[in-house]
User: Which sequence fits this backbone?
């Protein structure tokens, strides 16, 4: 009964259906290859995500390290300033004590007569011997006149003055510890003034060209933007930035500062900027040779009176 229906056309269609229902070995192999490629692609994407996450964590750790370094530096500078203030107050107190008239003391030739108990004695008016209050201690102005500080009566309402508003300083961007940074040596010798540590919105951060892990990079944080621009302009106008840009760093290069904060011979660019110029400008010579020979050359300039200290060393910026 079924044999009458098994025509050649029917058999061909059945064979096509069977091939369509079952995988061809070649197609199965291609599918396996495609599946393997997709799995490897997913693994590669996951690896890239992990690397990106590690890079973000590394940058956050570097910024945290730099912020801690700045915090330590700020604490040291604050302690140094407090010590200087204590020394100034101590010197002022010594001066005040030295100007006071000492009490007269009896000499050997002077005869002291004790009055009789019945004779009343009028005690002289003496100044109090307790320590002078800081509120009543006279302060000498530059003109030499003594000015006694005063404070308003109790209950007085005080209002914020314009000077108090101006003394608040420049704004500090989120993620930064200072309102301004100057990068003196950054990536590929780049330098400039920045108002943020990391880029915040449209404010480019110093981190774009400065890397804390690169020991040849030089950066300085400033308490206000005006001082940052002042120091950076001195660095540019004196020609130091141009001198460093025109010559690639070498192992045997030294620097001789004949005019600056600390005239001397220095081993490398970092010590030149941080110690010799203290982030300012100056007259600098690039010297090729040993540090001993550079110091000898500097001593010759010094003996001839050709060196000059142009600025006092600062403890805070």
Assistant:
């Amino acid at each position: 009964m079924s044999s009458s229906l098994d025509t050649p056309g029917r058999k061909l269609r059945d064979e096509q259906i069977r091939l369509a229902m079952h995988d061809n070995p070649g197609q199965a192999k291609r599918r396996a290859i495609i599946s393997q490629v997709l799995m490897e692609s997913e693994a590669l994407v996951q690896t890239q995500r992990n690397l990106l996450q590690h890079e973000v964590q590394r940058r956050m750790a570097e910024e945290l390290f730099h912020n801690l370094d700045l915090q330590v530096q700020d604490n040291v500078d604050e302690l140094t300033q407090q010590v200087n203030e204590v020394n100034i107050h101590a010197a002022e107190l010594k001066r005040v004590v030295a100007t006071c008239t000492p009490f007269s003391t009896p000499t050997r030739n002077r005869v002291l007569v004790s009055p009789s108990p019945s004779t009343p004695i009028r005690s002289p008016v003496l100044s109090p011997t307790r320590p002078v209050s800081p509120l009543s201690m006279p302060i000498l102005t530059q003109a030499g006149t003594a000015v006694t500080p005063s404070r308003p009566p109790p209950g007085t309402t005080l209002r914020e003055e314009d000077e108090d508003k101006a003394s608040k300083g420049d704004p500090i961007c989120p993620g930064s510890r200072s309102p301004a940074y100057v990068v003196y040596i950054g990536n590929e010798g780049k330098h400039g003034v920045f108002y943020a540590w990391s880029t915040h919105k449209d404010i480019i951060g110093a981190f774009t060209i400065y890397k804390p892990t690169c020991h040849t990079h030089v950066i300085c944080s400033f308490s206000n933007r005006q001082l940052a621009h002042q120091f950076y302009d001195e660095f540019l106008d004196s020609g130091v930035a141009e001198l460093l840009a025109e010559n690639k760093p070498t192992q045997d290069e030294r620097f001789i500062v004949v005019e600056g904060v600390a005239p001397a011979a220095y081993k490398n660019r970092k010590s030149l900027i941080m110690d010799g110029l203290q982030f300012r400008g100056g007259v600098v010579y690039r010297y090729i040779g040993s540090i001993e020979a550079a110091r000898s050359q500097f001593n010759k300039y010094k003996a001839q009176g050709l060196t000059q200290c142009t600025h006092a060393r600062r403890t805070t910026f």
Observations:
- Confidence is low (pLDDT under 50) at residues 103-147, 162-167.
- The longest helix spans residues 25-99.
